[in-house]
């Protein structure tokens, strides 16, 4: 499976993704699921992918080729005027790629080749934007009420984000929050795995402000993982005690 | 959907279930998912059900009839000598009920009528036991390493149980833990809903030690729900801070 989260803060965007892909439990690999393109000083566009790896790699390849071969650049991510149009373009590529594979495989492959994408970025003169793109090619944008998107194995790590997220939080706190959310997910689903990719994009920087690959033996992640259990238990014990008497 | 949890403690068994059933989001009802039978001083048997309501109600009806009509009692829950045999009997009923409905509906109904059951109880002279019964009629038993079972919408509420569970905990603490787990689940999935049913069965009591229906306006549940957010945020802030400098 996969776990990716994208967040909008007042200060900018924070993205985190795992790197495990699996076909069954006996065939696992490490693949980067976060891909970023920049035009220094003008735009930064990053996408995270979940779903069928052949589909998402094909989408990335098509995007990458466009950034590389000048004669194909007219619809490239680096030239589209708005993030909305970037989302439209990626959605179209995603839907077409899935449809092509489905058709080639007939009913046999129905539903097997789907994928979802989180798109984040900013183009000069406009706000940082965050989108969730569906296999059907359509998409939604993050809003004040729903300021983050998750794809893949979203459930285990969701309650802490719902409780801990604050639009005004620092990048450091957002990173800590994501590490806790990923820790809960890693503990519960074997098909989400280390290393993790982290990227912070400060508003109006049009470049990655901070990037890190969080490896298996990362001392900070290990500390969070070890101490979150104790912190949760303390939080739990700080709640009022239940009493059999009062409620019977 | 549904959320039910059964736990084995040193002191006995703790069960909690929600009561929401839905067919789509515009057709919701309240149904009790926890059913208990006792022979005072000799045995207590409780089951919680998730899945197709017609299937689980049919299983319960068949079980209830057996406890009521003397001529059918030879395989009844109240006369089987061990919890293992009770699990076998319920598993058989569950599988047969699902199969009958599937067959009557042909391929159209495939997979639509499944259900799962958590079985908990104790018979005099034996240990309290906890089982998870699958739609196929087979089952697993809780062990020292896996001392609780969840059915239905299990993911949102799982991390806190994994972190908070302790075999030696009091019934009061276990109840508090389940309330936190249910609160996270209720917040995330509309198809899990109040009121909740709670039952505590002390070892060798062969009767419910404590039963409660936790209603919408339950002051204790409201306090847990309101304060858990703050407690989680405090726990989160007690963790070491991430620093961009140290890791780049």
From TrEMBL, chains A, B:
GO BP term, example: proteolysis
Organism the protein comes from: Aurantiacibacter sediminis
Keywords noted in UniProt: Hydrolase, Protease, Proteasome
Pfam families reported in the protein's UniProt record: Proteasome
Classification of source organism: Bacteria, Pseudomonadati, Pseudomonadota, Alphaproteobacteria, Sphingomonadales
Protein name: Proteasome-type protease
Gene Ontology CC annotations of this record: proteasome complex
Molecular functions (GO terms): peptidase activity
